[in-house]
Amino acid sequence: MAYSTPQPDLSPWRRSFPALQEELDGRPLVYFDNPGGTQVPQQVIDRVVDYYQRANANVHGPFLTSRRTDHVIADAHAGMADLLGGAPEEIVFGQNMTTLTFAVSRSIGRELQPGDEIVVTVLDHDANVAPWRMLAEDRGLILRTVDIHPEDCTLNWDDFTAKVNQRTRLVAVGWASNAVGTINDLRCVREITQRVGAWMYLDAVQGVPHLPCDVRELGCDFLVCSAYKFFGPHMGILWARADLLERLTPYKVRPASEAIPWRWETGTQNHEAQAGLLGTLDYLCSIGAAQGAAGGRRQLLLAAMEAIAAYERGLAAYLIERLREIPGLRIYGISDPARLAERVPTVACTLDGVPTPELGLALGKAGINTWTGHYYAISLVERLGLLEQGGMLRIGLAHYNTVEEIDRLLDELQRIARSARL
Ligand SMILES: Cc1ncc(COP(=O)(O)O)c(C=O)c1O
To answer: Domain 11-39+306-421 class?
Structure first.
């Protein structure tokens, strides 16, 4: 099938990513492991090097390198606020999404009483389940789990409504599934949580890399994401409403500042990662500017994410359509071409007659990076009955991927499917 490159064509931006030059057996590596972590553009590498060469110090010192560090930190908070649509004092950096969630869940727990309820979902990564499950154990809370419709891996809204009641204090939900790509309808979640006055804790780790983000529009009270999933360094980010960051009690040392967001950033932060994150934002801004966007950093970032979403939707449409032609291949999640706006370009599948781990291994030998297993979306893979057989193959696209790379994957899968049928 002839297929034209989706528009706007973002594939020329590949050149910004040195890792995409890596080869195996004379052919460029194909990075479809993006939901597990993305590659970084040169701007990130340059910023990290520059930080170490010119600014490496601790904060608030009366000397040049410390002042430069303070500047990097202030700009990283402002930049991340521009990406998410919040205010700089609402941005908290930390080691990763998981660690931030365990920390803030403990502070939230101080406000809850035995018998209060928390709602989680089957669709979520365990990083937005285990902290709440363990908090419930610690504080005598009731944990309820919302089911999915297994046929398309969307949340079961009847079950959702039934699981939330007047004792529900917090609903932990994802923006997009890291396994099957489902985008949850957050307006529904907001409506349900508002009805009972519960907080919405949004795991946006797989939303922020693919979609324009506006925390006020999403209607969440807390949002967590990870820079390494959107072309940045290994670090996590928490956004929370300023009044909540003021109201809740962080676990902190006494001499540390009481002002937000600093009271939430325990110990010395990863300054070089914050510098690198500024490189990510510069890179995304250049995509936004190339789309003809004008205005400040927020406008450029929104334009970049609109372009990324459009390009990736085209790639996903092609990938899914062609995967469906492979005999014995089964896609989990939304595969209806009319519903592609309800998913991010993360596609999970199995192939009859081929154990999933072997599938990943064969693709890896061919220079195509994918993931197999449950990727910590353990409740979902269990619910689909796929845990024992090694989970699913996950093909996760990013804007630096191309139609040609998808064709290489499809050729390889066709070859594997043929030999399984022999
Ligand atoms: C949806 C989702 N939530 C949470 C996480 C955990 O993120 P981190 O590695 O930053 O703790 C991941 C990582 O894969 C994820 O995909």
So the answer is: alpha beta
